[in-house]
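Example with several molecule types.
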Amino acid sequence: MVVGELAYERDVIVIGGGPGGYHAAIRAAQLGRNVTLVEQNQLGGICLNKGCIPSKILTQSAEKFTSFQEGENWGLEAGDISFNADKFQQYKQTKIEQLRSGIEALCQANKIEILNGSAFFLSEDKVGIENGDKFDVFRFKNAIIATGGRPEKPLWARQISDRVLDQHSISDLSEIPDKLLIYGSDYIALEIGMAYQALGSKVTLILDDGKEEFDFDQSICRELKRILKKKKIDVVRNSDVLELQRMDDMLTVTFTLTGKIDTISGTHLFVSTPIRPNTNQLGLSRIGVEQCAAGYIKVDYQSRTTQNHIYAIGDVTEGPALAVKAIKQGKTAAEAISGIKSESDFHFIPVVAHTQPPIASAGLTEKEAINMGYDIEIGQFSLSANGFSTLTGKKEGFIKVISCKEKQVFLGIHMVGTGAIELISAGITALEMAARDEDLIFPNYPHPSVNEGLLEAVEALRNQAIHIPPKSLKAQKIKV
Amino acid sequence: MVVGELAYERDVIVIGGGPGGYHAAIRAAQLGRNVTLVEQNQLGGICLNKGCIPSKILTQSAEKFTSFQEGENWGLEAGDISFNADKFQQYKQTKIEQLRSGIEALCQANKIEILNGSAFFLSEDKVGIENGDKFDVFRFKNAIIATGGRPEKPLWARQISDRVLDQHSISDLSEIPDKLLIYGSDYIALEIGMAYQALGSKVTLILDDGKEEFDFDQSICRELKRILKKKKIDVVRNSDVLELQRMDDMLTVTFTLTGKIDTISGTHLFVSTPIRPNTNQLGLSRIGVEQCAAGYIKVDYQSRTTQNHIYAIGDVTEGPALAVKAIKQGKTAAEAISGIKSESDFHFIPVVAHTQPPIASAGLTEKEAINMGYDIEIGQFSLSANGFSTLTGKKEGFIKVISCKEKQVFLGIHMVGTGAIELISAGITALEMAARDEDLIFPNYPHPSVNEGLLEAVEALRNQAIHIPPKSLKAQKIKV
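Resulting structure tokens for the full complex:
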């Protein structure tokens, strides 16, 4: 194999075909660039093949399962309801393949060359792409690094691999765990926990890193406490995990809790852990692309690395490991390459959990706002007083808005409840447009709808939510 | 009965306890008024007891029924699924009573006096309230008329009452019609049609007044054509109904279609017709409250009638017979009474249909915008290319934005698809805040979500939707 003998010429090389990578490639092609997209596994990346998509198929299935069980109230009668894991896996696989071939077709329609192989930088303007015994060299004007990340289990969870699952391997689980232990405090831990609980697992959540709470606004954490208790999902808080052992079909986690040693056992353990950037094989040091101590590639608001013509997007850069971030950075990078001055801004990035009920959140939490020195006002509306939530029987949850007293603009919007994920975009639009309370009070909201809960949360800021009794409105104000 | 002997003194009398009335009463009480709310039937009015709420319980139930039938794909197995109409009626009744007692409790908490009886004006500052042989006189500073409306069947549909249902009586139907004929072209006709089709009825829609299309944007009508065909719901367009006959258990509608006479038969007929204002018994002419020719009470943007201290809201005023309008007018009237200068504006009132899939619409349709002389641009995104819609299998529908070419602000947003009703509030917020395309392109949208469809519809305006192939993007532009 002789390196560098003949180099193909390309405008843009995108390394990694996950959501960030393929969005970047298509936007660059739309803007007239000649683009090659390199993927070493499967188009769509972790998000489509192992992460977001399969996990949402799981949560949707779990939600349907719950809905079936509640059907009798509505006059819907059926025999015993059961979950066929094989059929579910088939459905999942069909959908993933459908979406993957969609991406492939889009790339083709945009005249993007797709290469299978692993890429690394040979110099500041060349990458080598290796696939088996095939090796090609490409010279590029611009490169976009979108190689994603991988979950890194804590040391104690690495010794035993059987039945110890992470964000990437959980999607292939083809059985319903009898007793599922979950280590984590993020939206993924909650999604997986609630989905398997709905499908029949006995679930225990162990908050990671000795935490007291989940990674959400304190009101959401309070509501979660209630919801998890009702679902009989146990939560172990403030604990330090010491070790994991396996005996026959059981895994046992040993941890300390307020100084005492305790254990908990389960048939499976799911560990939702930080994502580490996939940068090792890229040869970054060779070409002057700087990384921070934790390994993330340093980028500016246009996703430009310390080498001006090379960009990095998604999980290889710092920030939440969310596809929405990768997508935005990908489009921004492609536009920057094409001379368009767009930028990525993640102040109001949505964090959503497809839990039962779902959670959707954007902007500052109450604690963050206070810590940043804001004098805040809070409006909160419980969905138990919302007409639509009442008629559907999905009365759990609330909508909370956090507003800056001085400037009267919204700082954060947090929702728990059926419909929250779709509704959060109204909140995000308001946040991004620096809306004031009147901007959300003036519009008309469909009736009956959960949307009216957003209106009433904002009205609560002014003591004028219709479906909150006067005393509770006053109490809300005194609390803040 | 001696009228006027002793008059009770009140700040505000609200006549009618539907959504408009009780919102007005509570807002007035929040603002310190002494309020009496008069209702002759049941609190919550038609909306809660006969209209919006029961119809949404029906549509939700139908949606669940469909979801059950699709469950097997997802690995959810159950025996034969059936619909128990009695249990459904029980559920419906429980929910209505729950919501009604909620309104009652809220009124009490706000120290609102609730009177049962029918009210009419004795003079410009006095109403009489009659309940059986009890009669009381109240002197008021302000009155709010919120007596609602009633559906008025066309003449040919009035002769036979058995099995001929309207918006108010359909909710008590305690069987699934074998063959349901529907006369109407509005959201209610579609909701009822699709719900009963899902529950097993053979449904035929006869567009009212000889119409060619439903009351939505032309793209929605096109999508509806496809969806209704797939559901085997027949649609009779451009027809003039001549008469209705009954023989045994069958109703037969005779109509002319392109000059020829034709008939169609069904076991039940549902007629979704215009709502006429309930004003006859109020004695309005006595006190100088003017009505237009069709009987609606004339009001300004604060819902003030031609008598400055008397307000009218909801279905007794002109405009769409929607609870959202009544609610907004009710709050505006209560605020105006209390010296607050708020106003109602219905340019961007949402019209939603809880169909399968749902429809949500706000602002101008394409045709309206063109007729008003706007030079428009259109961005449209099919949910068949949306990741979340694909994984849930709910791929029907689209999102369409209509933008003014000159000023680059949005004029209308139209959606068909699962999640549309919650998502429309993002569109409405954008419309109300005079957002430009960049205001909806800049924010982050959760991934995967139907919300991303809104982003891509806006991106399509700029030829840069990621999940639309270049040729289709160009074709969209050429079409406009």
